[in-house]
Amino acid sequence: xxxxxxxxxxxxxxxxxxxxxxxxxxxxxxxxxxxxxxxxxxxxxxxxxxxxxxxxxxxxxxxxxxxxxxxxxxxxxxxxxxxxxxxxxxxxxxxxxxxxxxxxxxxxxxxxxxxxxxxxxxxxxxxxxxxxxxxxxxxxxxxxxxxxxxxxxxxxxxxxxxxxxxxxxxxxxxxxxxxxxxxxxxxxxxxxxxxxxxxxxxxxxxxxxxxxxxxx
Length: 216
Ligand SMILES: [Zn+2]
Fold this sequence. Notes:
The structure is a single chain. The protein starts with 10 loop residues before the first helix and ends in a 9-residue tail after the last helix. The protein has helices at residues 11-19, 26-40, 51-63, 67-74, 78-84, 92-105, 114-126, 156-163, 173-182, 187-194, 198-207; strands at residues 47-49, 89-91. A two-stranded antiparallel ribbon has the order 1-2. By secondary structure, it is mostly helical. The chain is globular. Bound molecules: zinc ion. Zinc ion binds at residues 8, 13, 17, 24-25, 27-28. The site of zinc ion (ZN) has 7 residues, from helix 1 and helix 2. It comes from Nocardioides kribbensis.
C-alpha cells in the first residue's frame, strides 16, 4: 500500500496491507486491534447503506466546507471522511457522527475563501447537491429536481418518456445524461433519434466523475 493511501490507520488499511501481501504498518495494526476489541465488547453498530452519509458530506462540500472541517465537527479524521464519501456502507455510529456534523454546519454558509470557492465550483461540476436541494436526505428514492442550476432541473418522467420513444422531447443536461446512461443501443443510434451530440456528452460525463481529493 502506498505511504499516502488514506486507509492507513484504519481497519480497511489493515486489510489492504494484507491484500498487497505486506505486513500491516503499526497504525493499521492498532486500528484493526481496536476494532476487534470493540466488536468483542459488543460496541460495533451494524453497517447501514452509506448514501445518506455521502449526501451529507457532499452537501457540506457544496456549501464550501472542507473535508477536514467536516471531520473536525464529526470527531473523525479528514482521511476517514474522504474515504467515507466513496463507501457503499458505513457503521451506524460513524453515520451518526457525520449526521451531527451536518446538523451543526448545514444551516450556515461559511465565509468565502479561495479554497471554499474552489470547493463550490467543484461541487457544481460534480453535481453535489446542497442541503436545501433535499426534502428528505435519507430517502433513497429522492431525485432532487432543483438546486442544480448549472445543469437544469431533473425530471425522471422526461427521461422515461424519451427512452419510451418521445425522442425529440426537450431535455435538460441532467436528463440527457441520464438517458445516455440508461440507453442500451449504440451512441450513433441515439444521436440519430434525438439529434443530440452524444459523443460530446460522453466526454463531459467522463470529465465530471469526481473524487474527494482536495487542492488545499
Ligand atoms: Zn498502514
